[in-house]
Amino acid sequence: MAMRSQIYEWANFGTSVRRSAGATAQAVTANQALDIFIGGVGNNITKPAETTATQFVVIEDISASPHNGGSAQVRINTTDYFQNPDVTVMNGIPGRASPYPVGAPSTAGGSDNVLSSFNLYPDVYVLPGQTWTVLYTPTSDVLGAGSATTTGVACFVKYTLYDGPDALIANKLLELGVTVNPNNVDWYKRTLIEQASAPAPATNGGVA
In degrees rounded to 5, what are phi and psi of residue 116? Predict the structure, then answer.
């Protein structure tokens, strides 16, 4: 399949690829960025996220638990995507601006409901051959098993993976300054098909 929408949910429970019932919460240290894919805490995958020479990724949404001052940051190769206005380092998009799930409380065990005030626009492009990840950073310690109380935190990322010919089209749209999304990729495909099926122009002034 050349174009597919994917989601990844990370939480500080367990240590395997998939969360299991009854998994215990793990601690997350304050002010230290944690790779939600391979950071060793919670559910992880087995290798860093990366694109091959024939792949193109469009990150469309990221969010994080709003409590513990959690933030989500996109890192492409060694560069963090979100920065302060003076181009200094920041933790990323606060969970209180982009909560996961929407309506989660602003404090652990709280009763309020945080609604999203952030929209990831424009989308984040990961070009062929680049590695990428999402980092979770809390500003206060997230307590794990063995503490008097434990805290569950999570991150969410939604993205579309374009592979093969669709990745080539995605790169072409990027060159043209056109937003890369499934509708525009399909539009470009139709354009190519229409051009290929159009009758050849007449020669000799239109005389057969």
Answer: -75, 135
187 found inside a domain? no
Q: Assign 3-state DSSP to the chain and report helix, strand, coil percentages, each to 5.
A: 15, 30, 55
Determine, yes or no, domain membership for 177.
no
For residue range 184-205, what is the model confidence (pLDDT) as tens digits? 999 999 999 888 776 766 666 5
Entry pTM: 0.88
Average pLDDT over residues 16-23: 68
The Cα 42–Cα 150 span in angstroms is: 14
Are residues 153 and 42 in contact, defined by beta-carbon separation less than 8 angstroms? no
Domain hosting 54: range is 3-163
CB atoms < 10 A from the CB of 191, how many? 11
Residue 65 resides in a domain: yes
Distance from C-alpha of 88 to C-alpha of 158, rounded to nearest angstrom: 26
Pick the closest to residue 3 from 131, 175, 177, 189 (CA basis).
Answer: 189
Nearest-5° angle of CA 187, CA 193, CA 197? 145
Q: Identify the DSSP state of 191.
A: H
Look at the chain and report how many structural domains it folds into. 1
Convert 55-78 to b/e letters by CB count within 10 Å (16 or more is b): bbbbbbbbbbbbbbbbbbbbbbee
Residue 117 placed within a domain: yes
Measured at the alpha carbon of residue 170, what is the angle toward residues 135 and 6, in degrees to the nearest 5?
45
Residue whose token pair is 């302060």 = 84
Provide CB contacts within 8 A for 144, sequence distance 6+. 12, 24, 25, 26, 27, 28, 150, 151
